[in-house]
Amino acid sequence: MFRSLLLLSLIFIANSTSSNKNDCDNKGDNGTVWNWDVSYVQVSDGSYIYSRTHNLHLLKKSNVTPLVFIHAYFLSSTAFDYFLERFAFNYPDIYKKHIVVEVDFRGHGESQIIEPSFSFSRLTYDIVEVLRYHNISKAVWMGHSMGGLIATHAAIYYPTYVHSVGIFASGPYVSDYGKQLFDSIFDPLTCIDSNSGHEIYVADVLNRGMSPSQELKFKTDTHKLLLTPAKGIINSFATADYTNATITQKVLILSSPTDPLFSPSIIDDLKEMCTGQITSYDSFDYGHFFLFHYIDLIASYIWQWIQ
Q1: Residue pLDDT, tens place only, 130-164
Q2: Which residue of 13, 143, 237, 305 pairs with 174 in a disulfide if CB–CB is 3.0 to 4.6 A?
């Protein structure tokens, strides 16, 4: 039952990020106000990490700190597409004057998968290496779900690269219930490709923001096996130890009292770890995936916070 609910939530996200891209004027050639420059960055273990940047040319001309958006487990940077379109529609300065960076976790989206290097430390360091590649010395790290865990990890272990932290439906730890829920999805989430007759991983379909109608057109020769290396990430959930850890940066917390993965008590744990300024909102009632139900409201909170 829980696995089905999670899958339905992920399918909703995939649909919401692959439609309704007509809200902004002055769109670029890619149908969006965001003019992305794509890079495949080779990191220290030889993996290639996909990143895309907007307005990187402003790095030496602007005093604005770059913004890094970090996606959730099983998704990719495309999960933020519609959110960023709405953000730009409501606050045009976000795409006119801000540098924005997005990264696909290894094994997700367009990034390469090399087993078995899946852990908080490895995923966090991948982003640090991407920032170095782009000559970015410090950024605002904003993460949804597992992306928030990575942002938290970066604030503790790579503080010189972290200006401030935005944590959306996340916290420093996953709840025991959340660990059980993630563990339950190790059973292959598969469907049948109508063209080849082979099984494909639903997680891979969702990574690319495909709608259900596109799902059956997805070719098996391009999919990546996420479920095996993902166990390393789950082990990181279970073994993360932030005893006496301190977050000194400014923190924005957007949480939901009905979130089964990151309960309000876990957010309280996060607050206890923080010595910097904390801005917190916990009035969302859609559980773990509220980010995709309150796009305009959350964009307004982020916009106020980064000023």
Answers
A1: 999 999 999 999 999 989 999 999 999 999 999 99
A2: 237
